[in-house]
Amino acid sequence: MAESLISDLITLQDLTYKIQSFSSDLSREDTEKTIGKALQMWSNASQLTFTRVSTPGVKVYLNVKFVSGFHGDNHPTDGPGMELAHAFFPLHNKGLAGDVHFDDDETFSINGRPGVDLLWLAVHELGHSLGLEHTFHPNAVMFPYYTGYRPNLRLSSDDRNGIQRLYGKFALY
Ligand code: CA
Ligand code: ZN
Ligand code: ZN
Fold first, then answer.
1. How many CB atoms lie within 10 A of CB 144?
2. Which member of 32, 106, 125, 133 is catalytic?
3. CA of 86 to the centre of ligand 2 (A)
4. pTM to 2 decimals?
5. Integer distance in angstroms from the first to the last C-alpha of the chain?
6. Is 125 a catalytic residue?
7. Residue 82 — left, alpha, or beta (φ > 0 → left; ψ -120 to 50 → alpha)?
8. For residue range 68-126, what is the model confidence (pLDDT) as tens digits?
9. CA–CA separation, 107 vs 49, rounded Å?
10. What whole-number distance in Å separates Cα of residue 63 and Cα of residue 18?
């Protein structure tokens, strides 16, 4: 990411989000909890806060959707396997900036059940939403490839440094 974007991002610390559609594999509650938990991990490591909005018609910064095939953004999903999700970097694509689209042709799961672990994927994709690029640090959640369910998933020091470079360390008060 260009350094010049960083100062703009600093102003984006209190972010709103919405879950606009749900996984066909998980209950709404499990999906909401998992997305909330993923955002909390980034929030715990930085000065970011996230507020969920569910009021229809109210625009938010970060829209989360589960989509299949063509869904209005020049980036159709590719069926089961291959690409699991895509996310839009901040300050690009205007209205889509910060959004995450999960490929609902994947089978998503939580807590190590068979399927793609939604928590790992959400933390990774939301990392992109917040402006993080891939890193080849082996323990980083921003590693480019899905490596399977990890119990007690945590950010690596590389992930924490990345988010803190963009948004500052967590506030000590
Ligand atoms: Ca796919
Ligand atoms: Zn999309
Ligand atoms: Zn990625």
1. 11
2. 125
3. 6
4. 0.90
5. 30
6. yes
7. left
8. 999 999 999 999 999 999 999 987 657 899 999 999 999 999 999 999 999 999 999 99
9. 29
10. 5
